């Protein structure tokens, strides 16, 4: 435990580490107590890892479950399309090829499950956007895959606390854990730490959309 | 990490990880998208907060109980990795990975302890634990078991958490446990997603029964 890494580069989104809860205007009431605890823990470890995610996770207040699921569906469309394409584009072989196939299958199942759930809740699933993934070769693929998976984890972690239905929340939890597993596997392929920080920081919807915007055709 | 991979055959035995069941919520979710759901659903995980005694009552009331349950598991994980580091069974990159995971578990302990205190609760005591550390391979298998179980334990509680802030914290840890599990599964030559595209939760009883053999007082 002596060589703990606590630099801000460890975050999926470095700017997040700079977010200071104390500077945000306070509509947090009940959460103040916990925020203080979280910040205290962060202070002990020289990192704000615990702090920002609570604030970010509260940013989607007001969204309906259908809104949140449609947001997740958009991301799953992106990942699904990305891996489907990668089967022929990423020039993967051996172990990586199996991984690409696995990820393509998982993301496709997420798309199907989210679509069905949105309909079940009486909502209308968003249409699949058109995507354009600017990469070439295996290393380009892996780099982008890491961004998408890490962003996916942070997106679910940011949105999930706003989900009202316990069933939907449990299901989203089952998906985000799989996204985290994907992220770790892809990171290992990139010779990077599978779990770079002790806490996966959340991103709010705006940040996520900003992150994926470049890939919308 | 290559040497770990060679040590670990694909025929690993999963004695402890009998995470059966799956929540009714997830089953319903899966049924909605036409997949096979686990028929032997024990169904206590996601929906138990509604009346009756909570699953984590022995650890405290409400969110405090859930946080203390998680804290107990994080204590065990932290102790396990510390023992593994001391055992001398690993070196080089493998040792660094184990050290890193251990330090992240220690951060989880800190954060959960703070969170319990912030909610006015008394943090659960650190259990005394002993782990069988016979060979690098058996240790890795145990690590994989513990991490997969840990991830499933968090998932099992997510929908029971009342406070969105506590939920955000738990989710930020949950996905890191998922990352650890996937990394260890990769090292063991096993699939990163043993439950398929949707991770399954584990209920408290299952989890406690699984870790019981390691608690000595």
Write a concise synopsis of the structure shown:
Chain A is mainly α.
Describe this entry's structure for a reader.
- The complex is a heterodimer of chains A (217) and B (217).
- Chain A has 217 residues and is an all-alpha fold.
- Chain A has helices at 14-18, 32-44, 50-57, 65-89, 94-120, 137-159, 166-189, 205-212.
- Residues 1-58 of chain A have low confidence and may be disordered.
- Chain B is globular and about 40 Å long.
- The longest helix of chain B has 27 residues, at 92-118.
- Helix content of chain B is 57%, strand content 0%.
- The termini of chain B are far apart.
- Chain B has seven helices and no strands.
- Chain B has 217 residues and is mainly alpha-helical.
- At the A-B interface, helix 2, helix 3, helix 5, helix 6 and helix 7 of A face helix 2, helix 4, helix 5 and helix 6 of B.
What labels describe this entry?
heterodimer, A: 217 residues, mainly alpha, 8 helices, disordered N terminus, B: 217 residues
**CA-based gyration radius of chain A:** 18 Å
Assembly level: heterodimer
Order of helices and strands of chain B: HHHHHHH
Q: How far apart are the first and last residues' alpha carbons of chain B, in Å?
A: 35 Å
Reading the helices and strands of chain A in chain order gives HHHHHHHH
What does the overall shape of chain B look like?
A: globular
Biggest sheet features of chain A:
none
Low-confidence stretches of chain B: 1-51
| Number of alpha- plus pi-helical segments of chain A | 8
Radius of gyration of chain B: 17 Å
Residue-averaged pLDDT of chain B, rounded?
A: 81
Helical stretch tally of chain B: 7
* Percent range for β-strand residues of chain B: under 5%
Number of strands of chain A: 0
Biggest interface and its residues per chain?
Answer: A-B, 71 and 70 residues
Share of helix among residues of chain B?
Answer: 55-70%
- Described by the principal axes of the CA atoms, the overall outline of chain A is globular
Report, as a whole number of angstroms, the end-to-end distance of chain A: 45 Å
